[in-house]
Write a structure and sequence with these properties.
The complex is a heterodimer of chains A (340) and B (804). With 340 residues, chain A is mostly beta strands. Helix content of chain A is 2%, strand content 56%. Chain A has one helix at 8-14, and strands at residues 47-57, 63-74, 87-96, 101-109, 115-119, 122-126, 129-132, 140-146, 150-158, 163-164, 170-172, 179-196, 199-214, 222-232, 237-245, 250-256, 262-265, 271-280, 283-293, 298-304, 310-311, 317-326, 330-336. In chain A, strand 8 and strand 9 form a beta hairpin. Mean pLDDT of chain B is 82; it is low at 214-218 and 359-367. Classes of the chains: A mainly beta (340), B alpha+beta (804).
Amino acid sequence: MLCWLPLQALAQGFAGLGTNADGYAIPERDYRLSFPQDHGPHPDFRIEWWYLTANLQDQHGTPYGIQWTLFRSALQPGEAEGWRSPQLWMAHAGLTSATRHFSAERLARGGIGQAGVSTAPFSAWIDDWRMTAPNATLNQLKLSATDAEFAYDLTLTAEGPLILHGAQGYSVKSREGQASYYYSQPRYTLSGTVTLEGQVIPVTGQAWLDREWSSQPLSSGQSGWDWFSLSLDSGAKLMGFRLRDDAGDFTSGTWITPDGQATALSPGAFQARSLEVQTVDGTEVPTRWEVRLPDRDLAVEVTPLNPDSWMDVSFAYWEGPVQVTGTHQGVGYLEMTGYR
Amino acid sequence: MRATGQALLSHWRRHPGQLLLLVLGLAMATALWSAVQAINGEARRSYDQAAQQLGAAQIDILVPRAGDGIALSRYVALRRAGWQLAPVLEGRWRLPDRSVTLQGIDLLSHPPIPALAQLANSDEMDPLALLQPPGRLIAAPGLARYLRTLPDLPPVLEAPDLPPDRVITDIALAEELLNRSGALSRLLVLREQSPGLPPLSTLAPELIRQAPSEKTSAQRLTDSFHLNLTAFGLLSFAVGLFIVHGMIGLAFEQRRGLFRTLRAMGVSLRGLIALLLVELILLALLAGGLGLILGFFLAGALLPDVAATLRGLYGAPVEGGLTLRPLWILSGLGMALAGTFMAGGQALWRVARLPLLSAPGVQSWSARARSGHRWQALGGAGLAVVGVLSVLLFDGLLAGFALLAGIMLGTALALPVVLSLLLTLLQRSARGPLAEWVWSDMRAQLPGLSLALMALLLAIAANIGVGTMVSSFRLTFLGWMDQRLSAELYVTARNDAEGAALQEWFRQEGIRALPIRSLDTRYNGTPLRVYGVIDDATYRGNWPILEATTDSWDRIAEGRAILINEQLARRFDLWTGDILTLQADWELPIVGVYSDYGNPNGQAIVSLPDLLERAPDIPHRQFGLRLPPQDVAALQSRLQDSFGLPASAMIDQVSLKRESLAIFDKTFVVTGALNILTLGVAGFAILTSLLTLWTQRQPQLAPVWALGVTRAQLARLEILRSVLLAVLTWAIALPLGLALAWVLLSVINVEAFGWKLPLFLFPLDWLRLAVLAILAAALAALIPARRLRRLPPADLLKVFAHER
């Protein structure tokens, strides 16, 4: 749809690769998140997302994964009415099985109502893709997306508290101190349907919602990230990321106990090593990983459900469901950006 | 085989004139046909290119059923229902010296615009700059240069492939420049849609979805223009084929002896037919090639006028240049081949059934032909009935053309029988044996001449029909212009501020000024221009009303009624007494219908105060001024002094009428040229037919000569016969031509332009055609007649010695 515009510039803004924060608000360590306001958009920050991934299975146990993401990117800080709004919205939807992977994209201008997020009741939307709640919390969500080849319609129920990453939601992203606000609801159970090649399949599973906003999430040397959200059979959860840097990678993460206690991992505690590199859609990406968290005696191998989980959108990246084996068993989602 | 071939070809060496006529006839037919094809192809390519350059080809659009915009909230609602749409806000953007089309698009959703492809790949194009203030304007280089001279405009980027009067920009900036916020002009329905969406007709009943084919009214209307041309091309081709038929028939007739000799010498029938086929193919390729060259130049000569017509009449952009295309060459040669076989098929069939030893018979052929004529006449009547039925049963341009084709071909097919009947009647009044022989001889010659006469009939009828249509149209147009263009001077301000200043000045000077102000909107998805007028005697006295209530102008002045043009009335069957819904809250009773030959779109008139109440921002720049004609020049120079108005901004009534008439006349240049060429071809057909008959004439004339009629007398009778047949044909063609004119004026015109025209009769033109037909027939008979006069008596005697 956009092949006539060199939209890399826009897409980089969405991907958080814009490294210059002039005029935009900057995350501050002593800010305390407050809800429901912070479920809504922060137009003074450059980049923001509502990011939901889920591991599903049908009644035969066949695994699937879905992704629903709404990005906001500001051309300038602030908001205006109508077409003059400097806010741009982009959404990605993905559906992955062991053999198929679908991705779709929607784009919208802010200010006219085609896309946006409201807080009371909570509603995030772009066109007919929706994430809505009956109230101002994120405890119960209805989630849907439709494209020419696939669709899903799911109901989610939170089984635990919101998790604030880093220091009360202030998540450091580089040694130079770049940071974002970052919180999650990592523990949803869900049920609903996915539609694949015209076939409506009932599914159940678990989902993970990430909320993050910032103006300058990457430092200048950083080229991309590898992000893991793992749900272990023990009930514990692990979020860990590696920001790739010429001068040495930066890793961080959060360990979440089954009862919802979150512990921020100190830089370097989370270790991720690529075991296998594959060419996906002409780009070399690591598809098998070794993840170690020595503090928790965790050493697992992370393998994708479908190595071809390439999101073929304006800003292309790899995103798909994974399986966890080793000292711990489980499922999760892996996102890898900046390889192209 | 080689010897046989040489023997067959030797005929052409001995008759180079025949070869020349055959090739020329086929070449002319091919030339006319392919010229029309080239013109049509070139024009269509121009439209396609224009549409494609804007990236809107092949994409359905949604436009409002009524009113001039789609609410932004409706677009958002459709989006949120799942429809993938791209919004466009488009309008006339008034600049100090001109106005251009400003097209605002949403860069995030609009499909690729090929005209911007080059720009998109250059460093100049920064999407962020396009999306943020001050934004960017994109225009063709000429317009871009002009825009850069204006103050307070954002930077301008150049895209050479954009139309010269169009500026593309982001929709946010377009809202600001057009001073229209929260409204959209149309929505593109993008190609990829999710399955199972709720239908647009229930989501947005106030919008109409239009397929690309019906998208621009200009395209739909130009289609009718091209169909018109194609019909003419086909007619010319058909008439041209009569020549070819005549010449091939002649060549085969003259070689009958040769064929028989060759067969007797052992050449197989299959071999003979194969050789004749090769001969036909070679002739077709030779003549087709020549015709293509002629056609290319003919098209090149006619295209500038066609382009001017299409631009002037329909506003469709067509370039004047012509390029040679392989497909065009192939189709031209294909037509030449197909035409040759159609024309030569009968002759080949006869050769195939040539009895090896039978005596050469001419009479039996004629007798056979006569019974065939009866069937032909029946077929002709059938065709005419089909034509009439098609127009009764179906609407549309094609039905109109089916009617035309039906009655034209039907009458042509029936011509031999009708002529034969006429001649029988005339024969009854004949006195003396010679006169009786002349009539019955004429009847005997009919089979051989009938094709040429049919060609003549078609050519004359087409000339009368089209001539009457054009002249009637012209007469109506002149009268209409006198009524419509009643102001003595038309003045155009460069911007609205100047317009307001002008109006104030007119008021102070006591000059009667009629503001010409309009709103472009839509009715049922089609463009509609609504004019607001003040109450003035000019309108009451002069407006070209077709039907109206007696108090129409009073009610208009009170803002309680609307007048509409004939196009709108016919397209939607709205007449006096009906209600026209302009917007949801703006319904007006129609109090009259006026004729409007300026453009094919809908138009309406309401009171100016009423219009301004609903659309206060409409342009305020044009005025019609009423003043004594002798004061016009003085006022022009005063306006120039006081306001610095350029001469081009002031046009007096006389010049305006002259220019309008010039455009009108250009419209029919092509038709006129094709008409004359068709008549020329028909004259040619008669000549070839008479030459074909010549060889058969000697045995028929010899007994008459032997009875004492001199060769000079016989020669005169030959010419008289030809002229008489031409006159009779003309007499039959006259009513056919008038019927054709009626169909053109009352059926085709309504479909093509949306107006019906009165039929005027031009007897002088008919006489001119009669003289032309007589001249053509006399000239065609002159060559055989001269040969007859100089024929040595010995040759005539030989007839008795050895009948072929």
